[in-house]
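Whiteboard transcription, Tuesday session. T.W. wrote the C-alpha cells on the left side:
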C-alpha cells in the first residue's frame, strides 16, 4: 500500500506541473458569438466585415483595442469569431472594466 501512495503523489506532482505548463501556452483569444439583424429585426445573411473595439469607458471612452474580421459568414443572423486572432489581446489590462462595440461594414 505504501508504494501506491507514492505513485499517487508522483502522479499529482506531474499533473500539477503539466497544468502549469499548459496554462502558460493558452492563447489570449475570446470566442464571440453574436446575432446580427437589420433595423426591422430581420436576421442578416452573407459575408460582412465586422469591426470590434474595446473602450476604457462606457460613454466618451478611448479606443484601447480594435480589430476587423473581413467577410465573416453570417447565417440566419448568427456569427462567431475569435477576438484577438487579428490583433493580439496579450497586452490588454483586464484589471479594469472594458466596453465592447461592434460595427458591421460601414
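and on the right, the sequence the group agreed on:
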Amino acid at each position: 500500500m505504501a508504494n501506491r501512495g507514492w505513485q499517487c503523489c508522483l502522479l499529482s506532482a506531474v499533473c500539477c506541473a503539466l497544468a502549469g505548463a499548459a496554462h502558460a501556452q493558452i492563447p489570449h483569444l475570446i470566442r464571440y458569438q453574436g446575432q446580427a439583424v437589420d433595423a426591422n429585426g430581420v436576421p442578416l445573411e452573407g459575408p460582412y466585415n465586422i469591426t470590434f473595439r474595446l473602450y476604457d469607458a462606457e460613454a466618451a471612452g478611448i479606443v484601447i483595442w480594435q480589430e476587423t474580421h473581413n467577410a465573416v459568414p453570417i447565417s440566419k443572423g448568427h456569427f462567431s469569431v475569435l477576438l484577438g486572432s487579428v490583433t493580439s489581446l496579450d497586452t490588454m489590462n483586464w484589471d479594469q472594466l472594458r466596453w465592447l462595440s461592434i460595427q458591421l461594414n460601414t
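Someone added at the bottom: The mean pLDDT is 82.
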